[in-house]
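[stage:ingest] chain + small molecule (zinc ion)
[stage:ingest] validated
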Amino acid sequence: MPIKIFDGHNDVVQHLREFTPDGIDFLERSTTGHLDLPRAEVGGMFGGFFALGVFAKYNAEQDLIVTQTGYEVRMAAPLDPVSTRREIGLQLSALRSLEQRSLGKIRIATTVDEIEQARREDAFAILLHMEGADSIDPALDELGELYRSGLRSLGIVWSRPNIFGHGVPFAYPRSPDTGPGLTPAGKDLVRECNRLGIMIDLAHLNERGFRDVAALSTSPLVVTHTCVHALCPSARNLTDRQLDAIRDSDGIVGMNFSVGDVRPDGHRNADTPLTLVAQHIAYLVERLGIDRVAIGSDFDGATIPAAIGDASGLPHLIAALRDHGFDDEALKKIASENWMRVLRLSLQ
Ligand SMILES: [Zn+2]
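[stage:predict] done
[stage:export] tokens:
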């Protein structure tokens, strides 16, 4: 029996033909990008978190230059909430159209039971995630609206500031302690997500914001797609102190395949051996325990190791983990069971 995978993060929504005219048909095997239904099936992936969001098109006029000790990094400028809300609405309806025309093969799930039912019936389960709360108003009316639309996972920030908190810039080598913590509105957002049963994702959040959520949230701490700072000192990665807080909250880390966050040299070079990915996962397991580590590929959002290539290459990662000494029981936990465990705790 091949190991089945539930993935913690992808950005394929940006590339769907329902959203963008030159996008892909998710139901057909494509030669571009990382993820579509046929390639997911080959790779053993039965579902995952699909991110809605508006990301950076780096351009010197729009982007803030954050000056830090010794060097400068680019950081995306804040978004306009009104146009962001419109984009998110279009992405949501793109996914609903895809679900509809898939004739039951793709289902947007809002509970673990629905994900598991889809799996039993050989359907593909989508859990709606939003990467950055930039479209949400301080009164949080939009949050309730998104919840009713099926949103069950929310990243407070992407790598930019918003009214709730501050993201980390894409910087290497750099500590994730890059600025202030959550704003009062950010703390309200955490409380309301807890109340509604929306999982809070701490990926892209800076360290002080992370600590604020750790002090406040009643749910396990979750980072859907990240790596280990001790092995690759990228600002996007988690320090040992952050990992310990995740362990103490019974939370989870989804291992990111983004090579710039995997490689010790921080280079965005796809020629990155899977032994390096396995080393991050082994470090996470050592620090967090086998029940608190999962996969968060960042398919269609990052440069990933050529040895995985796309979703159809996921079995190569499983093989690399097996070579590293993980047995079937451990692999099943990392591949899907741990996500189900944390989602059960978070979505109530
Ligand atoms: Zn991301």
